[in-house]
Amino acid sequence: MATNEKDTTTAADVSSPAYSGEYTRDAPPRPEGWKYKAIKIGRLETWYASPAVQLVLVALVCFLCPGMFNALGGMGGTGLSDAKASDDANTALYATFSIVGFFAGTITNRLGIKFALSFGGLGYCIYTASFLCYKHTSNKGFSIFAGTLLGVCAGILWSAQGAIMMSYPPEKLKGRYISWFWMIFNLGGVIGSLIPLGQNIHSVSDSAVSDGTYVGFIVLTFIGALLAFSLVDGSTVIRDDGSRVILMKNPTWWTEISGLYEVFLTDPYILLLFPMFFASNWFYTYQFNDVNLAYFNTRTRALNNTLYWSAQIFGALIFGYSLDITSIRRTVRAKAVWVTLFVLTMAVWGGGYAFQKRYTRSTFPEKDSATNIKEDWKAHGYVGHMFLYIFYGFYDAAWQTSVYWLMGALTNNGRKLANFAGFYKGIQSAGAAIMWRLDGLDDPPAYMALFGSCWGLLAGSLVLALPVILMKVRDHVPLEDDLQFTDETAADVAPGTEADTKERV
Predict the structure, then answer these.
(1) Taking the alpha carbons of 275, 386, 213, 222 in that order, is the dihedral positive or negative?
(2) Among 174, 152, 172, 173, which Cα is nearest to 162's?
(3) Pairwise CA distance, residues 349 & 218, whole Å
(4) Residues with Cβ < 8 Å from 204, sequence gap 6 or more?
(5) Which neighbouring-strand residues pair with 238?
(6) At what angle do helices 382-410 and 414-440 cross, to 10 degrees?
(7) Is 422 helix (H, G, I), strand (E, B) or coil?
(8) How far apart are the first and last CA of the chain?
(9) Burial tier of 382 (Cβ tally within 10 Å: 0-12, 13-18, 19+)
(10) Does residue 45 sit in helix, strand or coil?
């Protein structure tokens, strides 16, 4: 187990360019091997085992797996006209996710990135297949089992994804790496939502999506699970300046289980971020089921879904690049993003309050879903409702991008960030499980009550997170601090050392 007494000064200076984010022009030579051969894309030169290429690959995996899941879930009811089966399956999913996700960093650190992502991808394929089955057989047991399995798979997948996204880039590029991932990932939601939009464009009734929609998603999610095997091990990734990712050289189940405990000893302030984690998926149930499914017909739901995920791309782009403005100190950027999120929370959800006053559960009873006449995109006043849904998507991307950036600003240690990502997704899923269950009750709370819970949680969690932003975010995290949570030394990860010319296997 790592201790503070180990040597961290045997190589390059601990304020290495990799960790300050300043690249050097004369980077040390890369090791030999196919992973490090130059790949030229126009004027840009990279290599397969570079942070950028690996981030794009993991983003494509999430594009094909969680991206398709989001596209289908965004239709409301996971594509069905009645949300009951979806509520039950998602309650099982997120309840399992909340437990597995909390420990997923330990599992990911032990298994490795590619196996964690591939295993996670298979769960999305089986989950989608279960709803195609339910549409024809009403086999709720299969869909609940698939939701439970996906809770295990997704917990591990998102821990691996978070570790890559937050630990592979240098400090000054973390915001844009997060935005690149979020844009590619949500492009999956956009393209996936175009499938039901195209197939249901003439459907003005309130009905389930077609079989072809489900089959298309099953194929795409399976391809995503296979694509995960194209990733390289994190230990072989080399940044532009020759530095490497901080990991455990010799992880065992014991070191990773004990490492989970160590995080709470070394970083107890992470508990103040748990409410932000909890709130970050709480509102999905309300937006997908209690707004999109409840108020709009099938083709309008599909259009709203497309616009929602499209808005996520722009939200991630704006926030990711803004968080990397190097002319402004990182501590100042952290305070600025807190203020921005608070203002957006009041503005967007204030608009949502005005919309929610228009209808209740009795307006469109679920038991009469086949005869309900819901709003179509040709209806007078739809444009305003459409923009509200667009801003809901933009807000989601702003929140998620900011939380990931904040965690990445606290450390550069890949092992610790895998645990942070696991905490994030686990706590996030606990909130989602509760919300899906509330919405799925035989006598569910009023729409306005669920709306109020979303707005209150988001605003309150920002207040609780403020001390972390004010006291724990630093302009730069020294390498010696990051190495305290691993068995590596500066010679293993800093540029300009003998280790840089040796290929790791």
Answers:
(1) negative
(2) 174
(3) 34
(4) 297, 298, 299, 376
(5) 244
(6) 150
(7) helix
(8) 23
(9) middle
(10) strand
d(CA 51, CA 433): 33
Which pLDDT score is estimated for 499? 45
Neighbours of 247 (CB within 10 A): 24
What mean pLDDT comes out for the span 247-259? 60
Cβ(199)–Cβ(308) below 8 Å: no
Structure tokens at 51: 């942070």
What is the distance, to the nearest Å, from the Cα of residue 356 to the centroid of all Cα atoms in its chain? 27
**Local confidence band at 488 (pLDDT 50, 70, 90 cut-offs):** low
**Pairwise CA distance, residues 164 & 51, whole Å:** 8
d(CA 46, CA 243): 15
pLDDT at res. 101? 80
Reported as a single tens digit per residue, the pLDDT across 306-345 is 999 999 999 999 999 999 998 999 999 999 999 999 999 9
Question: Is the pLDDT at 470 greater than 70, yes or no?
Answer: yes
Q: How far is CA 57 from the centre of its chain?
A: 15
Residue 450 has, within 13 A of its CA and on its CB side, a CA count of 27
CB contact at 8 A, 438 and 450: yes
Local confidence band at 392 (pLDDT 50, 70, 90 cut-offs): very high
Quick one: pLDDT band at residue 32, thresholds 50, 70, 90? confident
CA atoms within 13 A on the CB side of 178: 33
Q: Using an 8 Å Cβ cutoff, are 151 and 94 in contact?
A: yes
**How many other C-beta atoms are found inside a 10 Å radius of the C-beta of residue 4?**
9
- Mean of pLDDT values over 7-24: 42
Residue 485, both tokens: 């949570």
* Radius of gyration of the chain measured on its C-alpha atoms: 23
Which of 348, 326, 339, 337 is closest to 405 using CA atoms? 337
- For residue 39, give the DSSP letter: E
Distance of CA 435 to the CA centre of its chain: 18
| pLDDT exceeds cutoff 70 at 249 | no
What pLDDT score does 503 carry? 46
Q: How confident is the model at residue 168 (pLDDT cuts 50, 70, 90)?
A: confident
Cα–Cα distance measured from residue 251 to residue 487, given in angstroms and rounded to the nearest whole number: 9
Higher per-residue pLDDT: 491 or 215: 215
Q: Which two tokens stand for residue 484?
A: 């305290």
Closest CA to 144 of 157, 136, 133, 155: 133
Structure tokens at 200: 């249901």
Nearest Cα to 409, choosing from 472, 366, 328? 472
Residues 365-387 have pLDDT tens digits of: 555 455 567 888 888 889 999 99
Nearest to 185, CA basis, from 208, 212, 164, 216: 164
pLDDT of 461 > 90? The answer is yes
How far, in whole angstroms, is CA 216 from its chain's centroid? Answer: 23
The residue behind tokens 């981030």 is 55
